[in-house]
Amino acid sequence: MIEQAADKADAIHLAAEVGRLDVLSIAITLFSLAIAVATILGFWFYRGVVDQRAKQEVGELLPGIVKNHLATNPEVLVEAIRTNRDLLRAAFGADTEKDLSAEIAATIDGSEAPDETNNGKAK
Which of 48, 76, 102, 113 has its CA 20 to 30 A from that of 29? Predict the structure, then answer.
């Protein structure tokens, strides 16, 4: 029987004649599964590397971009200070009784700072 199978040029015919087609099928299946697992693990690894590199790039470039934008558009900073008073107080550890954000915004605007005796309104 092996002699007859040897006459066949195809490996699948040879495996079928000898009765070892099941081994060939299992080997191909295991090889396919290994490729699938390697692809998925490679994707997750590459995704983590790209995510980390993107965070580094943003950390390096964002301060310069924000500084340039605020230099050309100071009204954005003024509006951010007026809108986020609690955040500004927390950042500077300012006294909550004094309206620090209004003073900073007024300084940037060039207008007068609000007076505490006038209930926080500018003179």
Answer: 48
Task: Tell me the two tokens of residue 6.
Answer: 């040897």
Q: Around 113, how many Cα atoms within 13 Å sit in the side-chain half-sphere?
A: 11
Q: Are 2 and 18 in contact (CB under 8 A)?
A: yes
The model's pLDDT over 43-69, given as tens digits with 9 standing for 90+, comes to 999 999 999 999 999 889 888 888 888
Which phi and psi (to 5°) does residue 68 adopt?
-65, -40
Matching residue, tokens 């609000």:
114
State pLDDT tens for residues 109-118: 766 655 554 4
Q: Sign of dihedral through CA atoms 83, 104, 91, 118?
A: negative
User: How buried is 81 (Cβ within 10 angstroms: 0-12 exposed, 13-18 middle, 19+ buried)?
Assistant: buried
